[in-house]
Amino acid sequence: MKKTLLYQIDAFTKERFKGNPAGVVLNADGMNDENMQAIARELNNSETAFIFSPTDSESDYTIRYFAPSTEVPSCGHATIAALYAKALEDNLNSCILRINTKIGILPVEIEKTDHDYQIIMTQGAFTLSPVFDDKTTEKLLSALHLDLSDLEEKCPVQIASTGHSKVMIGIKSRKKLNELHPDMSALTALSNEIGCNGYFVFTFDSDDEDILTYGRMFAPAIGIAEDPVTGNANGPLGGYLVQNKLVNYQNHYFEFNGRQGEQMNRLGTVNVKVTVYNGKPELVKIKGNAVAIFKTNLL
């Protein structure tokens, strides 16, 4: 009987029990949707990644991602975790691998230094939806228990995506960010209206010159009350900042570090790189550390 090899990885950190935990099943061949959903629900991480043998000549692996209650098309931290686990298990050297996901085939770079790894994920194509109308913004603010005066005036409220969309909500105060206690039922209802299940509240209120933003991400519609550190929020945030001309950059290139997880005591950092062409984001990459928590076989 085939053994199912399972890792638990904390992504976007080198400190155990910080960052964002993800389950990784390294040999998922033969599993069906029901199997994967049951494992994701049992582990109860925000996402669990399942690695399959390639089904085409263009990719090295196929990866699928499951939140506790549903499959999602892409996941930043679970990709970092999956390729980190694969690198550990196979003792990989620095290389570029291509993963087949629901949003297409994406290159992932593995950087090996001092017997450890950093993972760089190229995300999907960046898109930015129209700014929310006043009525939708009012519903959102009510659900987040925010006032209009809490918003950062220069930051439009709109949906950004590199494969798994998030609503971008810029606010003025990090203290206010850490005090948020959203109405999860209201956020879930709003998700059904706007077709987006994630809400990324961020601020430029940072006391560290190496950290541009602090953020929190809520996605109750897919069973994630709060996600500790979100690659599919910080990556699109980079594109959002560039396209809305909220940041300066040089030589068609913008890079920043976003921090998340402070309120949850699971602090992690996402490095985001945006290649810019004609003033618009052309390519978004996220880079992160990771650390293994356990490795086991499912009985």
Description:
By secondary structure, the protein is an alpha+beta fold. Helices cover 22% and strands 39% of the residues. It has 2 domains: 5-122, Diaminopimelate Epimerase, Chain A, domain 1; 127-286, Diaminopimelate Epimerase, Chain A, domain 1 (Roll). The chain has helices at 33-43, 76-90, 134-144, 174-179, 184-194, 231-243, and strands spanning 4-11, 20-25, 47-52, 61-66, 71-72, 95-101, 104-113, 116-122, 127-128, 158-161, 166-171, 199-203, 213-219, 224-227, 253-260, 268-277, 280-288, 290-298. It has an 18-stranded mixed β-sheet that branches. The radius of gyration is 18 Å and the shape is globular.
Give a quick precis of the structure:
This is Phenazine biosynthesis protein PhzF family. This protein is α+β, with helices and mostly antiparallel strands and 299 residues long.
Key words describing this protein structure:
single chain, 299 residues, alpha+beta, Diaminopimelate Epimerase, Chain A, domain 1, 2 domains, 18-stranded mixed sheet, 6 helices, 22% helix, globular, Phenazine biosynthesis protein PhzF family, Phenazine_PhzF-like, isomerase activity, isomerase
Terminal-residue CA separation = 10 Å
Structural class: alpha+beta
Instruction: Indicate the CATH topology of the largest domain.
Output: Diaminopimelate Epimerase, Chain A, domain 1
Q: Could you give a short account of the major beta sheet?
A: 18 strands, mixed
Assign the CATH class of the largest domain.
Answer: Alpha Beta
Question: For the CA atoms, what is the radius of gyration?
Answer: 18 Å
User: What's the shape?
Assistant: globular
Please tell me the overall pLDDT.
97
CATH superfamily assignment of the largest domain?
Answer: Diaminopimelate Epimerase, Chain A, domain 1
Order of helices and strands: EEHEEEHEEEEHEEHHEEEHEEEE
* Proportion in helices: 10-25%
Q: Which architecture of the largest domain does the CATH hierarchy give at level 2?
A: Roll
> Using DSSP, what is the number of strands?
18
Which regions are unreliable across 5 or more consecutive residues at pLDDT < 50?
Answer: none
